[in-house]
Design brief:
single chain; about 400 residues; alpha/beta; 17 helices; about 15% strand; disordered C terminus; binds pyridoxal-5'-phosphate
Length: about 400
């Protein structure tokens, strides 16, 4: 049956929503598998932890299924307390969300009105643009410098005029780079105390070992100004499918504002239970982060030797310049069962964002990429693949 063609929404829609760019979740593995009659798929498009969940989480969830008939605790009390203790913050400063993207959405709903000015990075995490625009705010994106470093003078200039919300992903998605401590402070010092600072640290666990990386919670802790730091269980903790993240704010008034606009049971029961266990399994977390670090270094070297520009990354993904139409490259890879994300933002159409997978998955990706880009590159690349050192999977 074909869908009816009536468009009742058109005449009723808020103009902000009619013009909203769509979020691109990447290709669906089942569809790709069916379309090209493939036996397996390598999914490197969503920055997931290739090692999967902690075995302790898997064990716990099986034992909790009996309780699914009950509503979850609307305050996520146990997890809330556990997190506040771990982070040494007051529980009143903290909020848990249905993924950190839920908190981003609540922040925009509670604080942004039509005409407000929001600053974020370019290229940017698309929800940092979509949610503010949904509220009618205008989003200005500050580009990285040509080497994908932070362009502090550009930020300082943009911060001269009033800004309602500063929305930064540190490390950056999709670039993978960071505001180092000096750059972080140059940014904060240039920001008015009337601006709400939102530091999205979705990849915090991958970056924190770098001595130059500013832990925003520690850096902003003593600041007398409004701020919130967002973190998630989706990336290094490998709970993306359960949807759970959290925010720590300057004070309880920010958190109270978010509670006004959230739905009461937004954190599902299994997510609360799993997060408590995941938080305590430091062995699995360390293993995941160590694996990503070594694999990221290996892949970056290989790709650079092959002549590709790869932005320096502090995350579990790489931002790679194919020097050609990245959409066409991603399509060719997809036909071989390898799903990566071609970046669609204006000015970055030659870039792929590729999550770091298991060693054999990364190997297939690199081989596939070399095959696609071979005619365009000058230096021979196949020989590097042959010499590729294999790293033991933890
Ligand atoms: C993945 C990601 C998120 C969303 O994480 P969830 O907790 O799964 O909602 C938020 N911000 C950035 C920059 C991300 O890359």
């Amino acid at each position: 049956m074909s869908a009816p063609s009536t468009n009742y929404a058109q005449a009723l829609l808020r103009p902000e929503v009619a013009e909203l760019p769509l979020y691109d979740p990447g290709a669906d593995p089942e569809m790709v598998k069916a379309r090209y009659a493939l036996s397996s798929i390598i999914k490197l498009s969503n920055n997931e932890n290739p090692l999967g969940v902690s075995p302790k989480v898997a064990q716990l969830l099986a034992s909790k299924v009996d309780l699914l008939g009950r509503y979850p605790d609307p305050a996520s009390r146990a997890l809330h307390q556990q997190l506040a203790t771990r982070l040494a913050v007051s529980p009143e400063q903290m909020i848990i969300g249905n993924g950190s993207e839920n908190i981003l959405e609540l922040l925009c709903q509670a604080f942004l009105s039509a005409g407000d000015r929001v600053l974020t990075q370019s290229p940017c995490f698309s929800l940092h643009e979509i949610f503010p625009r949904m509220m009618g705010a205008s989003v200005e994106k500050i580009p990285h410098d040509p080497a994908f470093g932070i362009d502090i003078p550009a930020w300082v200039a943009a911060l001269q005029k009033p800004v309602k919300m500063l929305l930064i992903s540190n490390p950056s998605n999709p670039v993978g780079g960071i505001f180092n401590r000096a750059q972080f402070w140059a940014l904060i010092d240039a920001t008015s105390p009337q601006t709400l600072i939102v530091m999205d640290e979705a990849y915090y666990e991958y970056a924190i070992h770098d001595a130059d990386y500013p832990d925003a919670l520690i850096e902003l802790g003593a600041q007398k100004r409004p701020w919130i730091v967002l973190r998630t269980f989706s990336k290094a903790y490998a709970l993306a499918g359960l949807r759970i993240g959290y925010g720590i704010a300057s004070d309880s008034s920010i958190v109270d504002a978010l509670h006004r606009v959230r739905t009461p049971y937004n954190i599902n029961f299994l997510a609360q239970e799993a997060a408590k266990v995941a938080l305590d399994d430091l062995v699995h977390l360390d293993q995941s982060v160590a694996y990503i670090e070594s694999e990221r270094q290996r892949l970056t070297i290989l790709l650079r030797e092959a002549g590709f520009f790869v932005a320096p990354s502090h995350t579990n993904f790489l931002f790679i310049d194919t020097q050609s139409d990245a959409g066409a490259v991603a399509q060719r890879l997809q036909e071989e069962g390898i799903i990566v994300k071609a970046w669609r933002e204006a000015g970055y159409e030659s870039f792929l964002r590729v999550s770091i997978g298991l060693t054999h998955e990364n190997q297939r990706f690199i081989e596939g990429l070399m095959d696609c880009c071979q005619p365009l590159m000058v230096c021979p690349r196949r020989q590097h693949i042959g010499a590729m050192p294999m790293i033991e999977q933890p």
